[in-house]
Structure formats: C-alpha cells, structure tokens
Amino acid sequence: MPTLPTRHPLPAPVPLSLPLSLLLLASAAQAQTSEAPPAPSTAPAATLERVEIRRTAPTDTAQRQQSTAAKTVVGREEIERMGDATVSEVLKRLPGVTLGGGRPGRGGDVRMRGLGSGYTQILLNGERMPYGMTLDSLTPDQVERIEITRGPTAETGAQAIAGTINIVLRESVRQRLNNVHVRLGHDDGHWQPSVSWTRAEQLDDFSYNLSATANSGSTVDQTALRTTETRLADGATTLDEQRTTDERTQRQAVHAGGRMQWRLGAGETFALMPFVILSGARNQTAQHLQSLLPTAVPDFADADKTGHNRFALARLNAQWQTRLASGLRVELKAGGSLSRSTSDSVRNERNASGTALRRIDDDRTGQERGLSTGGKLAQALGDGAHLLSLGWETEQNQRDETRTTLETSSTGVRSLNGEVGDNLQARTRRTALWTQDEWTVTPQWSLQGGLRWEAIDTVSDAADGQVSSRSSVVTPLFHAAWKLVEGGKDLVRLSLTRSYRAPTLTNLIARRSESTGTNLDTNPDRAGNPQLKPELATGLDLAFEHYLTAGGVLSIGVFERRIDQLIRAQTTLETVGGVQRWVSRPQNIGDAVTRGVELEAKFRLSELVAENAPPVELRANVSAFRSRVNSVGGPDNRLDKQPDWSGNLGADWRVRGLPLTLGTSLNFTPTYAIQLSDQQRNTVDTRRVIDAYALWTFTPEVQLRASVSNLLPLDNVNGSTFTTATSRQVATTSDPGSTAWALRLEMKL
Description:
The protein has 749 residues and is mainly beta.
C-alpha cells in the first residue's frame, strides 16, 4: 500500500507527549527534592530547549518502490538539471517517452510508448489540462514533480492506453522559499530572455506557494516541400513543385500560479490554487512556389502572410480535505476555467510577374468555459490492510468559436470555411464514478483493484445541423506488486487493464476546412466525423525492478495493448460543390495490437565499480516497439507515429575539488516508416538530440547554469507517398535543425 502524503504544514508542531513527559519528570524531580536536603543556592537552573521536528518526504525512488501500480516520480532536481526551457523537453529523456511534431530540441507532442497524440493522458494537478494549454506552455520552474504511470488506474482515469503523465505544480510548503531565476537563451540568431520567481512561506495555520514566469523570444522556421506525381502507366512526371517557407515568430508570455492553504483543524485543510496564462505571438511568413516542369504553372509564385495570435487562460481550483473520527478521509474539489483565444492573418499570393492573384483573410475567435467537481472517500479497513476508496468526477465545457476565412480574387469573394457556417457552439460533459481497493496482503504482496465507469456526451451546433455523440465505457483495472524477499530490493509488477481513447471534439465536428495551396492527396482538406466510436484497449504489463542501495534502479518491462475500433484519418475523393476534392476524415478502421520492451538503468558509478570511483551518476533507457494494424497490409503497417525503438543516455559528474557539476544527455529515435493505408505511406527521419550543461555553485544561495540543446543538429526530413491505381504522389519536407544556448542565474534570496 503506497505511503499517503503528509498533509500537515512544516515544520511540524512538537508532539504533546513530549512537553507532558518533561513536565512529569520535572514534577517528580521537584517531589524528590522536597524530601531531600535543600540543594545549594548556586545550582544552575534547568532550561528546556525548543525541539523542532521536520518530516522528510519519501524520495522519488522510494515513492516508485512503494507504489503498487508502476509509477515513476521525477522530482525537482531532475526537472531543473539540464536547464530546459519547457516541460516537454524534460520528458523526452524519460523511459518510453518520445517527442514528435516539432523541430528537434524545441519540444513537441509528448508520446508514451511510441503512440501518437491522444493515447497518452496528460493531467495537471490530477485534472485534465484546459483547452488551448500545452506542456510547452509550462516552464520547469513552475513544476514540483512529474508522475508517470504506465497503466491506467481507477483514480487517475482510463483514457490512458499508453499511460498517464501528471504534472504537479508547486504545492504545499516544506521550507521557506524566495527564489529568482534569470535565463538568457539564444536560438537561430535570436535572444530568448525569461525570468521566474518562486515564493513560499508558512505563517501559523496558513501557508502559500506562488510562482510566476515571464518570457519572450523569436524563432525562425525554414522548410522546403517538394511534391512530385508520376503516372504509373508510362512513368511520366505530371507534377513537380518546390515550395520553400520562411516563418519568423515573436512570442511573449506571462504565467502565474500558486497554492494557498489553510489548516482548519486536526487533519482538516482548505486550499485554493489559481493559475493564469497570458501569451501573444506575431508571425511573418514568406513563401515561394516553383514548378520544375517547364510547361506547368503553379497556383502562385510568391506569397506573404502576417498574423497575430493571443491566448488568455484563468483557472481556479479549490480543495477541502478532512479526516473524521472514524478514520474516514474526505476530499472534495471544484474548479473553474475560462480561456479566450484570438487570431487574425492576411495572406497575399502573386504570380511570377508580381500580379496579385488572391488575398485570404482569416479571423478566428474562440472561448471556452469549464466547470469541474469531484470527490473522494477513503477508509482503511482490516487493521490497515485495505484502503478502500470511492470517487466521482463531473466536468462540463462550453466552447464557442467564430471563424471567417474569405478569399478575394478576380472572381469575387468567397468563403473558404467550406459549405457550412462559420460559427460553432460545442458542449461536452464528462461523468465518472470509480472505486478502488489497495490491499497489502503480506509484507511482500500488495494488490490494487479498481472499477471505473466514464461517460462523455458531446453536442455541437453548426449551420448544417446539430451533431450529437455519446460514449460510455466500463473499465476494470488490476495491479499487483510482489517483493521476492520481504524487505528486499527486487520487485515484480503485473497489471491487467482496460482503457480507451475517446474521439476529440475536432474529430467529431464535421466542418470541412480547405487546404492552402493545391488540393492534392498529400495536401487534402480536413473534416470531422460525428459517427466515430472510442477506441478500446485491453492491456498487459509485466516488469521486474531491482533497487540499489544508494537509490539507483535497474528495470525491465514488457507490455501489450490490443486495440479495438482504431481511429485513423483516411483520405478520399469527395464531391464538394460539384467539384472533386481530396478530403481527410477520421474513421474507425478495425483492430490493432502493439507490444514493447522497456529497459531502464539509473545508478551511481560507485554502485557498480570501486567505492572510490568518480562521483558520476549514469542513466540510460531503451524501449523497443512493435505494432500491427490488421486492416492495413504490410510491411510497416504499424500504429501511427510509433518508431521501432527509442533510447536515452545521460551522465552527471560532480567534479571533486570544484563547485562544478557537468552533465550531458543523448536522445535518439531512428528513421521509420508507417503504412497508413493501402494507398498512403509516411516516413519519419532520424531524431537525435544532444544536450549538455555545466553548473557552477558560487554559494548555496547563488549558482550559474550554462546549457546547450541540440548539439550537432540534424535536418528534420519527412516524407509522404500516396499511390492510386493510376499515379504515385510523393511529398518530402525538409526542416533544418539548430542549436540553442542558454545561461541561467539561480538565486535564493
């Protein structure tokens, strides 16, 4: 049974038994002296010194070892080690975690076990992240710890086919803090300044923890896309276009959050957790489109685009906890969030002679309001052998979106929002009930069994009619942990779970959005599908962990997921306004299975060689994946965006005789190909990121950290091939890599 976190603020008060014992001893001594001869008047008087007791939280490794469900805990030291700019950059070094969708060294979509977006559940303080917020929106200074669970649990939720990542922001006060970090980065010839502040203090029965971050910077993205089409009958080239894009973005953001907690009585607390994000960006894009066939004329020769984006989010959560005389623990929570995003852009296209061809004005405004409530009852039974929990959750979100995309050309003005209206109102309601029993069978055996029911209702109002969708899933969940020897260092884990992946609101809404540029099978329009059903997965996890004396760990694990009703985007020709156009829509295409092996090692060099070895800490992990989509022919008919394997290797060296720590990290994912359908095949290039840092400690209160991200950068090259009965189209995208540098001054005031 996992150790429950201590809720008392620190430092803890002196136990009542201690002063009572001292008082009784003093009374007894006084009684004895009344019967004995008087003591000399010069004897020194006894004084009682103040006794302060501090409770130390379990280490990251201890929390992992004590958990019945397979869980990895990443604490403050590891979070800030490499001087990363975003939380996603921290995650990429963890076992089985990869990043995709972005340039190497610049974050991206977080994926566990090689599975694409939606298979990994991302939580913020145990709740789903608000709409419009991503892990790249969070800086490491705002995070207390990161919890990674390999299998779903009844309490954390079953929308976690690959696993769950819970980002825990700065929380209750363990010590007084007043820290300031000033960071200056440099990337692509542009400076990236940022500053963060953290303040924490305990004032009698009130404690608070506040953090704020402000950052600014510019980035440059240069991509080249070449698209060719070949006629299969005679091999003739019917299309050969080269498009180059130069995009420059200026960003500014301010984040602030915190936790204010009141101790209302013995075992009773109330906390408020506010969080605010304000961000804005300005984009300037220049494009050049060239046909490499002398007789072909491209849709345009040159284009420029200017755009602005603004995002604001305010979130407030409340939590009340108490413990009744019967031992029943009660937790109630509620939260509300409001976010607003606006964007506008103007794109002008011209032909080779500079004549204006068309202008595209795109204006979008979105607003989302969310309310959530939940509760948990926990009772220890059977002399503490069982911890029985019962919980419930409700979440309701309302999204209102207005978008107008107009094309102005020589033929007049027309809407590019498709054949439906520009306005959208969507409502989602999620309800969940769960129960869970954590049972310590013996000092060697612990079991966790749970059952969760969850239902999601979605209603969307659009110009072409109302779209309604409902899905409900019952998921049994079982985890077991067995120590080979009582009190030993070897542990075996087993998990049998049922999980699912619900269609996103974007996937369900049937609005069609036209592609920019030539409509091709590799550049289709995009639309939703209101008939989608959730994916269901049956999972098996088995792992062996060996814990070293000094806190290291060696582990090997295997897993399997069998997925029903797999969702995948399919590109087909559709008749739109009397014209044939390529449109990509998500579909349930059948069944799939994925398997993998995960190896991890984290230890001090002295634990494996001589005790006088250099003070070096090593960490390494390798994960290998195999998957098969049964409705798609092979080879490479794997799940979307899943590589063959990925790995990380890192080391940290505390230089003896100097207040200096050096470290480096290598993240590697090899080239792989995916057969998305019988017609479409994608290739993803090698992703290799080398990071390094140096930390100089001037005093315990002041230290300077220098870091570099993506040393020896590789170009990011991806390809897509679409084959029909008569032709084959190939699109290749190339994005050059870059190296980012940063200096961070860390001060404890």
